[in-house]
Amino acid sequence: MSAIIEELDPERRDVELPTDAAPEPDAERPRRAIRSRRPGGPNKRKPGDWLVLAVAVVLGFFIAVPFLLILVNSFKSPADYNTSGPLTLPTEFYFDGIVAFWERVNFPEKLWNSVFISGLVAVFAVLISMFNAFALGIGRVKGRLWIVVLILLANMLPQEVLLYPLYFMFKEAGLYDSQWAVIIIFTVIQSAFGTYLLASVYSTFPRELLEAASLDGASRWQILWRVVYPISRPTLSVLLIFFFIWTWNEFLIPLTFLVSNATQTVPVAITVLQGDRLMDVTTTSASALLGLIPTLVFFLIFQRTLTRGITAGAVK
Amino acid sequence: MKHTRTLAVAASVAVAALALSGCSGSDAGGDENTLRLWHYEGADSAMGIAWAEAIEVFEEETGATVEFEEKSFEQIRSTASQVLNSDEAPDLLEYNKGNATAGLLSSEGLLTPLDDVVDEYGWGDQLAPALQTTAKYDENGIMGSGSWYGVPNYGEFVQVYYNKDAFAEAGVEVPTTFAEFEDVLQAFADQGTTPLAESAAEYPLGQLWYQLALGEADRQFVNDYQLYENPIDWSGDEISYATETVKDWVDAGYISTDASGLKAEDAGVSFISGDAPIFYSGSWWYGRFVNEITDFEWGTFLFPEAELSPGSAGNMWVVPERAQNKELAYEFIDITMRPEIQALLGNNGGVPVAAEEADITDEKSQELIANFNALNEMDGISFYPDWPTPTFYDELNAGLQELVNGTKSPSEVQQQLGEQYQSGVDDIVG
């Protein structure tokens, strides 16, 4: 088959294909299969395996600690917290903190704002990433490396640096204090990363499929939607989920651009609880829990897609 | 085909969102009879309660409506300069006092000078001189002189909170002199209790250190330290006394060496839980102690023999230069300065700047406000040790942590702090 491609593709762009994508999963799969089918199964684990397991458990514990602390303290009354500190279990379930925060910031409104902004950003950014990557990874535009580097700048610059230029731009455009400012900014920032990642995935896209499609008379638009899009859908779904969660957790830019309370997102609303000098640990925990639950639910719903891996999409 | 569905659902959600939201941008003020007001005090805090009442009085008397939004402290702190430079600027907002905040914005021309209005309404007579310091800024944005840019509505100061039950049990009285205060500390230390709730990772120990220096100082020292009138001698009597006393207290067990890693919240909680019988800190704890201390009786007193104590006017009302209804904003400020609103603030655990002591009916609050008024009568409000330079808060905490740990001697700490203070001040004064 490589002879045919060579014929069609005099620049030998297929060289990357065998080295990059195809062999690796194949090489990995049998190894894993052998290991799990080993006779005796878990009983015959080597000391090394136990060590790895122990390290993984310890790591998992450390990752879970902040979340567990939030969970424990969300349901504690301030009096309970004052006498027993942050590390003990609550003596009784206390929901006032959660209720107080819910009512104080009008939580359903903030939740909707966050879903609205993150959802639109995720969809727009995936779309733009796909178009860009199609041009850069499959279309092989001249100077694509530099284009990718330029696009990545949006991602690499600290947001503090972008803040003032963006502020003046959107003020001139009349979009200051509008959710659209945030949606546009994050669509650009997220699609910068998406373009970078997808472009490298697409550059390993099997040429024979593209050639076959164009031989069948497909236009570029049709190649994108009928060939490239269906095959890279798992990767696109993973990007969609990441973009949603990343945008959800953004703080600085929403804080700056969403001036009116009615437009604010969940992470911005949580700051209402931080005073000049005082903090309210139990209510702050409750608010963090409320802010965290939606992303957790979103993640659980879509985690099957996530496990398919970000580089999935090569031809099986 | 599961993926198709996932993506299709996401896309249709997005489309629905678009359709539902339509145009959700808010249109900024512009109505002549609307006062757009922002502050960041919780609805059940003293200021929140008093100002809610002020809003009602204002609407009744002027017929205008108040469009109030509760902001977060963090949002106003980090975005004020941008918001106030746009059409979204409110007519009146609560803003943080200080050179880096109100001072900076006033020097950029974003705040309205209030000199004429202050004269017209007579607010200058209601506020003690030390409280006016943070309301006035010169053309470089340095506080203490120049035009009025804000009107403080509440005050704050640092005092001693003590556990009455623990005092009774230990058989000690409220000290009236500094020597007696040390005796009380010694009595607790003898019983194996660490008497002082302290934190060197955050502001509490820095404020105690400053209080100890103030015990040896006069008003001129405060002006030199805070307003850069004369250079400060960092090996002089005031500073040496403070640093060495902190060291002695750590050695004597009045302050735990663990304090170097503790935060203000930890120190406050150790007082609330009854572990430490004495907590030297600010009036901002007062409301929380009223609500959360149920197991014992507690009281307050000013630091014994002190004629100067840390404290200042609270955050204040400012009127943005781009505000659209400035006259309404002035009227609102005037309502918040009235005795009945000030009394309401005082009866709910706040420290009013212009209240009649007779109007305060709540017994505990009377003690608090009497302390504040006594301090004001002595002209004793001395601001905070970290105010002079933008980085001194962290530098002071780091120095005191080393002092508490014993990694540096008092004279080394003083020298280090002196250099850091001076280089910061040189940057400001030029």
TrEMBL record, chain A:
The keyword Transmembrane applies. Keywords: Cell membrane, Membrane, Transmembrane, Transmembrane helix, Transport. It holds the Pfam family BPD_transp_1. This is ABC transporter permease subunit. One of its GO terms (biological process) is transmembrane transport. Belongs to the binding-protein-dependent transport system permease family. Residues 1-44 are annotated as: Disordered. The keyword Transport applies. Its main location: membrane. Residues 111-302 form the ABC transmembrane type-1 domain. It is found in: Cell membrane. GO terms for cellular component: plasma membrane. CDD domains: TM_PBP2. The chain crosses the membrane at residues 50-72, 115-138, 145-168, 180-202, 223-245, 251-273, 285-302. It is a multi-pass membrane protein.
TrEMBL record, chain B:
Keywords: Signal. Residues 1-28 form the signal peptide. The keyword Signal applies. It comes from the Bacteria. InterPro entries: Bact_solute-bd_prot1, SBP. This is Extracellular solute-binding protein. It comes from Agromyces luteolus.
